[in-house]
Design a protein that fits this description.
Elements (H helix, E strand, L loop, with lengths): L1 E5 L11 H15 L3 E7 L10 E14 L2 E12 L2 E8 L17 H18 L6 E5 L6 H12 L5 E6 L7 E2 L2 H5 L4 H4 L14 E2 H8 L2 E4 L2 H6 L10 H6 L4 E3 L26 H18 L11 E7 L6 H13 L3 E7 L3 H13 L6 E4 L4 H10 L2 E4 L9 H7 L3 E5 L2 H6 L14 E3 L4 H17 L1 H13 L5 H14 L1
Parallel strand pairs: 1-2, 1-6, 2-5, 6-7, 7-10, 10-11, 12-13, 12-15, 13-14, 15-16, 16-17
Antiparallel strand pairs: 3-4, 4-5, 8-9
The structure holds adenosine-5'-diphosphate (ADP).
Length: 491
């Protein structure tokens, strides 16, 4: 079987969030299960080129239609973690992917719809006929439609399209004329059974296109698959998703266990292993020591519990709750580390101000940047990891924390509810964290207080919880098998 992923992110070279991790982790696992996998992404100027091997141009001039003319594209080929990746570099006037950033551009609709069409053009011109094309989020949602309308009749042969929704909040609304600019007839598509947004009659909705035109569509956890069919979780698409739910399923994301591995992680000062429980806690403590030193946390007196948080600072992640958790942790004698970035200047300013106000407090550290190395050290060095999301399609950070023996404290929503089971209240036989339900201060404190109090009073109980969490298999093994089932159904 031959599968091509077409996506806007790929870990570790072009990563903004979990989408990047999923595309790379799932691809690696599919390859290990004998499937031929290739990936197509844009050739961003800001990619981490150091992690791409043998990057070279392979086709200097694949022309793709846009705004009445054919724009030439250079397609590059390289290898990322051994996976063959094609990079599309359009030579249009505004150089879509040479902006120094992945997403924050006013013409994102043009950039990614152009990329989607160019990716199919590449498959067509190079006579690649993958069995399955797997598309992700709104950026590549129109690919099944482009295939049906343009490339199928030209002779490109693809047996099925899987479309995965990683986050329903971002759907890609656009004026229909983008379709005319891409060579299609917009009035044909601005109808309720095609691309018309259910609530904005004059706009098309890219994500709706992915749902309507794909062979099967999925989302990233079983619980989120239920939530998106409700008025609260559906962001306006709940009725549409429900009406297509005969071809819909929630498949829990996995974690790339070879990359996120405390036994081999290249960023950790001291490695540790679940297979060696005798040294595990001592070695984990060494990571805490190193992290506190690196970030100049200077507790004097008795040891303190350390809480970490790594996130995009956006409303979805419960930024106000993160702030409440921070102050509560300090109040209870603990320490707090926040590593995060925000696309919103006002949020960045807010957290920078908070950082300034707390500059003399040696029990808290803010890092307002994207930092892969530090993220690994936080996962390994903290006692607890907090994820107070308002909604969370799957969430990877809690899974990484588990793998590094750091106890998650999470709001039970979406994929967090599928993966974290409360030490006191879960009906599951195996537990791995602290959870709360209500997205308010009282809710957060109900879990955080229990966690910190247990740290002070009953370390043995926490150690049992850590071991239980580290033993759980949230790798890609089972999720990849489920994707393969869907690929087979397409065949
Ligand atoms: P989302 O995709 O909504 O951002 P996920 O939990 O699915 O959330 O994935 C987040 C991924 O991004 C994790 O791998 C996390 O470690 C990483 N990440 C988020 N912010 C940062 C940051 N500032 N520095 C390093 N890694 C980060």
């Amino acid at each position: 079987m031959y599968v091509v992923h077409i996506a806007s992110e790929l870990s570790p070279i072009a990563k903004v969030g979990g989408l990047a991790d999923v595309v790379s982790g799932l691809s690696k696992e599919l390859i290990s299960k004998g499937i031929k996998v290739e990936i197509i992404i844009p050739k961003y100027d800001c990619m981490d080129h150091s992690s791409i091997n043998d990057l070279k141009p392979i086709t200097p001039d694949i022309p793709s239609y846009f705004e009445g003319e054919y724009v030439p594209n250079t397609v590059w080929q390289g290898f990322v973690d051994g996976i063959k990746v094609y990079f599309i570099e359009p030579h249009n006037k505004t150089a879509f992917f040479s902006r120094g950033e992945f997403y924050n551009c006013p013409d994102n609709i043009e950039r990614f719809s152009y990329f989607s069409r160019a990716a199919l053009e590449f498959l067509y011109k190079t006579k690649k006929n993958p069995d399955i094309v797997h598309c992700h989020d709104w950026h590549t949602a129109l690919i099944p439609l482009f295939y049906n309308e343009i490339y199928k009749s030209l002779g490109l042969s693809i047996k099925g399209f899987i479309y995965t929704i990683h986050n329903l909040e971002h759907q890609g609304f656009a004026s229909p004329d983008i379709l005319d600019r891409l060579g299609l007839n917009s009035s044909y598509f601005l109808t309720p059974d095609r691309l018309q947004d259910p609530h904005r009659a004059n706009l098309i909705n890219f994500m709706k296109g992915g749902i309507v035109y794909s062979t099967y569509f999925t989302t990233v956890s079983p619980n989120y698959a239920k939530e998106v069919q409700t008025i609260d979780g559906g962001f306006g698409l709940h009725n549409l998703i429900t009406s297509y739910n005969y071809k819909f399923e929630g498949i829990l994301n996995g974690l790339d266990f070879s990359y996120w591995n405390p036994e081999t992680d290249r960023y950790l000062p001291t490695h540790f292993s679940i297979n060696d429980p005798k040294t595990l806690f001592k070695h984990k403590e060494a990571n805490k020591f190193y992290l506190r030193k690196r970030l100049s946390l200077k507790g004097i007196g008795p040891a303190r519990p350390l809480v970490g948080c790594i996130t995009r600072l956006v409303p979805q992640k419960g930024t106000h709750l993160i702030e409440s958790a921070l102050f509560r942790t300090l109040e209870m004698g603990g320490e707090f580390i926040l590593l995060g970035t925000s696309p919103e200047p006002a949020t960045t300013e807010h957290f920078l101000l908070l950082k300034l106000n707390l500059a003399n407090n040696h029990h808290v550290h803010f890092e307002m940047q994207y930092n892969e190395e530090l993220s690994h050290q936080i996962y390994a060095g903290c006692d607890f990891f907090i994820v107070p999301s308002i909604f969370e399609p799957c969430g990877l950070t809690q899974l990484i924390a588990l793998r590094y023996g750091t106890i998650p404290i999470v709001r039970s929503t979406g994929g967090l509810a599928d993966t974290i089971f409360d030490i006191d209240h879960s009906d599951k036989p195996k537990r791995n964290g602290f959870t709360f339900n209500h997205p308010d201060k009282t809710g957060v404190f109900s879990a955080l207080d229990r966690a910190l109090n247990t740290w002070y009073q009953d370390k043995k109980r926490l150690e049992t919880l850590i071991l239980e969490g580290m033993r759980m298999d949230f790798s890609w093994n089972i999720p990849a098998q489920k994707y393969i089932e869907f690929y087979n159904r397409c065949l």
